[in-house]
Write a structure and sequence with these properties.
With 205 residues, the chain is of the alpha+beta class. Helices cover 36% and strands 32% of the residues. It contains 6 helices and 7 strands; from the N terminus they run H-E-E-E-E-H-E-H-E-H-E-H-H. A 7-stranded antiparallel β-sheet has the order 2-1-5-6-7-4-3. The two termini are 21 Å apart.
């Protein structure tokens, strides 16, 4: 869960999937969000917005929803594996299935809004409901949570590769990291997750 929470905290937006029964199609909405551990037994996704529009109407009528997030990691180009790599993208993704509910309690709404601001402005101390500029602002904001029922994780970090191929890609990434390119940070993160998921894969066998 720590890995999942870290990604929820790092990924800037997710995609909410709501059934639109009138159109007989799913309706998808990119949203900013935050993870909330205290609002439901399995955790919850907090969102906010305006008290109007298609999203608000659909969520009220169709509370069973899905929510998807993804983060790209290192791009593994054709130069890997001695120039014989079929290019691929390493990534982490999660699909949440849950039930949406509107949050009306003002204290809970303030908690959700504070969590959202803390996620996107972690170094800022400007936002406070005690400040005149923000006092009472929660009253006009639509806030809600997706109570998490289940989570499916899909991660691609070469964990299923042959040992020789895995080690070769790892070595190439380490070499690229040392060259201090603009992608060095994401390459370093990828290396750590490659090792973690490789170990998880071995333990699961």
């Amino acid at each position: 869960m720590d890995l999942l929470k870290r990604h929820f905290d790092e990924i800037p937006f997710g995609v909410l999937i709501v059934p639109d029964l009138e159109a007989d199609l799913p309706y998808t909405i990119p949203l900013s969000f935050c993870y909330l551990s205290d609002f439901a037994p399995n955790g919850a996704i907090g969102i906010h917005g305006a008290k109007a529009g298609r999203k608000f109407r659909l969520l009220k009528n169709n509370p069973k929803v899905s929510f998807s997030v993804a983060k790209p990691y290192a791009y593994i180009g054709s130069e890997f594996l001695g120039g014989a790599m079929i290019p691929t993208q390493f990534f982490f993704s999660a699909l949440v299935v849950g039930r949406f509910r509107v949050v009306e309690d003002l204290a809970d709404k303030r908690a959700i809004l504070r969590a959202l601001v803390a996620k996107y402005e972690p170094q800022s101390e400007n936002f406070s409901f005690n400040k005149e500029a923000f006092m009472g602002s929660e009253r006009g904001v639509f806030a809600g949570i997706i109570e998490i029922k289940s989570i499916s994780i899909k991660a691609k970090f070469g964990q299923n590769l042959k040992h020789s191929e895995f080690e070769s890609i790892l070595s190439d990434l380490q070499t690229r990291t040392k060259s201090h390119t603009q992608n060095s940070d994401i390459d370093s993160q990828t290396i750590a997750l490659m090792r973690q998921f490789r170990q998880n894969h071995k333990e699961a066998q």
